[in-house]
Amino acid sequence: MTTLKERLHADVIVHMKDRNKVALTTVRNVLGEIETREKSGKTPIELQDDQVMALLQKEAAKRRDTALIYTEAGENDRAAAEIAEAEVIETYLPQPLGADEVEAIVDEAIEALKADGVELSMRQMGAVMKPVTAKVAGRFDGKAVSEIVRARLA
């Protein structure tokens, strides 16, 4: 099984052969960002897949935000380019979960705690959030997850 970083490196060659300039530039920029993160600090580190995934999510979000700014400024060509880059990055991310799937995960975590004999109140929000966050991990907005948990516990 290859790591996400190895897959990015392999895709550089694929994009070169396909002459896909947007994807090639985007993947190279992401790899550059990964290398910068790995070399920054006192000692170099090797980013794990979950760390690379978090970085990819931030890069995609950054491009979507920039596209919004360009759209508001009337620069539709630049906005389209940013969206295209975000879409390339998002192909490396896991499929996002729907709200109903997240609600099912939250309900499952609550049922597991009830089975263990835990009296549920708002004080146990952390106990519910921990397993839910582990399962959702970057596939759904964390703030929305906490709102779902809060609603279930209220």
Secondary structure topology:
Elements: H1 4-18, H2 21-39, H3 49-72, H4 76-90, H5 99-115, H6 125-136, H7 142-153
Overall mean pLDDT stands at: 85
The parts where pLDDT drops under 50 for at least 5 residues are: none
CATH topology of the largest domain: Hypothetical Protein Yqey, Chain: A, domain1
Main sheet characteristics: none
Q: Indicate the CATH architecture of the largest domain.
A: Orthogonal Bundle
Beta-strand percent range: under 5%
Alpha-carbon distance between the termini?
43 Å
Question: In words, what does this structure look like?
Answer:
It is a single chain. The chain has 154 residues and is mainly alpha-helical. The protein has two domains: 4-90, Uncharacterised protein YqeY/AIM41, N-terminal domain (Hypothetical Protein Yqey, Chain: A, domain1, Orthogonal Bundle), CATH 1.10.1510.10; 99-153, Arc Repressor Mutant, subunit A (Orthogonal Bundle), CATH 1.10.10. 74% of the residues lie in helices and 0% in strands. It has seven helices and no strands. The protein has helices at residues 4-18, 21-39, 49-72, 76-90, 99-115, 125-136, 142-153. Helix 5 (99-115) crosses helix 7 and helix 6 (125-136) runs antiparallel to helix 7. The longest helix is centred in the middle third of the chain and has 24 residues, at 49-72. The protein is globular. The termini are far apart.
Describe the structure concisely for a colleague.
By secondary structure, the protein is an all-alpha fold. The protein is 74% helix and 0% strand.
